[in-house]
Design a protein that fits this description.
Elements: H1 12-27, E1 40-45, H2 51-62, E2 66-70, H3 72-75, H4 83-93, E3 96-100, H5 104-113, E4 118-122, H6 128-142, E5 149-153, H7 158-169, E6 173-177, H8 186-192, E7 202-205, H9 209-212, E8 218-221, H10 236-240, H11 247-250, E9 258-261, H12 273-276, H13 283-304
Parallel strand pairs: 1-2, 1-3, 3-4, 5-6, 5-8, 6-7, 8-9
């Protein structure tokens, strides 16, 4: 059973194929409205969502599938039933499952016993669906992904972890700039080094954000305080303030540099409003591309895992 849990589980060719599928869906949104006809996709969310839920529900329906949303109160993951038992039962009812949750290990356990494809809609460790949409957006605006200097600023979170996998897999030019105490886990960096494109990749850490963005083509950020952490980590604002994307910082980048943020954004914190709504922002193109990327993931997984 092939799942979509982490980008490290795929080859560079498979990721590039997904990007081609996504581009095709964007050009012709209703080209294959019956591709998944008669299929049911369960949306198992123990963590709230806007873009992930809507893009998968709309995408699945445009491909002909029915969607079934299961929130935290319906499932009560690990309370009423074990993760494995929920997976085994749902696998008997539906043809695929999008699982969005806090603990990444729950997704791993869930997928291990599932008899239908499982898609990681987000965990605290990884966010592979977001990165696929990001790659599509960069390719659209820059014409290429390789030889494009991509700089990530801010927290060493699930988005950065997935970017590190993608950059090593696809041999990208990628710089990440975080406070020293907020770097990605060492095992992520070690695993990424084993991916097929790692030897040709140019991945590096630069603590100083002003040095990191020199000649950057893409300047990327995410929230400093993740969902579920608010109220506990307000001190982070002072720590991360130098990593804010603002006009002054952007002047250090390539004059044609583009700004990305996976949303939701705290305006005036990790990115100022002028930049977010300005001419260099492609943030809302990036959000739209979640729909096209999700459709590509669904098509490929159902194609591989015919049931």
């Amino acid at each position: 059973m092939k799942h979509f849990i982490s980008l490290k589980d795929f080859t560079a060719k498979e990721i590039n194929d997904l990007l081609e599928f996504a581009s095709e869906f964007k050009r012709f949104p209703l080209k294959n409205p019956s591709l998944l006809e008669g299929r049911t996709l369960a949306m198992l969310f123990t963590k709230p969502s806007n873009r992930t839920r809507v893009s998968f529900e709309v995408g699945a329906k445009e491909l002909g599938a029915h969607t079934l949303f299961l929130g935290p109160q319906e499932v009560q993951m690990g309370k009423r039933e074990t993760v494995e038992d929920i997976s085994r039962v749902l696998s008997r009812y539906v043809h695929g499952i999008v699982f969005r949750t806090f603990d990444h290990e729950d997704i791993v356990r869930f997928a291990k016993v599932s008899s239908v494809p499982v898609i990681n809609g987000l965990s605290d460790l990884l966010h592979p669906c977001q990165i696929l949409a990001d790659l599509l957006t960069i390719k659209e605006h820059k014409g290429k992904i390789k030889d494009t200097k991509i700089v990530y600023l801010g927290d060493g979170n699930n988005v950065l972890n997935s970017w590190i996998y993608a950059s090593n897999l696809l041999s990208l030019d990628f710089v990440y700039s975080t406070p020293k105490a907020y770097q990605p886990p060492s095992f992520i960096l070690e695993e990424a080094q084993t991916l097929e494109g790692a030897k040709e990749a140019n991945i590096r850490y630069e603590e100083d954000p002003l040095k990191a963005v020199l000649d950057a083509d893409i300047v990327y950020t995410d929230v400093w305080i993740s969902m579920g952490e608010k109220g506990k980590n307000e001190s982070r604002e002072d720590i991360f303030l130098p990593y804010q994307i603002n006009e002054s910082l952007l002047k250090k980048a390539n004059p044609q540099a583009l700004v990305m943020h996976c949303l939701p954004a705290n305006r005036g914190m990790e990115v100022d409003e002028f930049v977010l709504d300005g001419p260099q922002s492609i943030i809302f193109d990036q959000a739209e591309n979640r729909l096209h990327a999700q459709k590509a993931i669904l098509q490929k997984l159902f194609e591989i895992n015919k049931k």
